[in-house]
Amino acid sequence: MAAQGLILILIIGGVAGWLAGLIVKGYGFGLLGNIVVGIVGALVAGWIFPMLGLGFGGGILASILHATIGAVVVLFLVRLIKRA
Fold first, then answer.
1. H/E/C letters for each residue in the chain?
2. What does the pLDDT profile of the chain (84 residues) look like in tens digits?
3. Can you give the pTM of this predicted structure?
4. Other Cβ atoms within 10 Å of 18 Cβ, number
5. Are 6 and 39 in contact (CB under 8 A)?
6. So what's the pLDDT on residue 1?
7. Smallest Cα–Cα separation from 64: which of 17, 19, 16, 20?
8. Deepest of 6, 35, 48, 62, by most Cβ within 10 A of its Cβ?
């Protein structure tokens, strides 16, 4: 993977994790945590959305939206696990 692709993945993951932290109040994990949550969220959304027949097209904004929705799902799951 080229360095530019890795940097883009980290930026999209960070933005998506940050946005998900704003949506799910009280779940900010700092810069590295937000990047991890955003990347994991993108993986989760990449697994769930095709099964539901959903797609957002291509581009950076679509990738951020995709990863943000997945990160929100991940944060809700984290919240449910912490309550149990």
1. CCHHHHHHHHHHHHHHHHHHHHHCCCCCCHHHHHHHHHHHHHHHHHHHHHHHCCCCCCCHHHHHHHHHHHHHHHHHHHHHHHHC
2. 688 888 888 888 888 888 988 888 766 677 788 788 888 988 888 888 888 888 777 888 988 898 999 999 988 888 888 887
3. 0.83
4. 19
5. no
6. 65
7. 16
8. 35
Which residue type does 18 have? W
- Look-up of token digits 């932290």: 21
What pLDDT does residue 27 have? 61
27-57 burial, b if ≥16 CB within 10 A, otherwise e? bbbeeeebbbbbbbbbebbeeeeeeeeeeee
70: tokens are: 């997945």
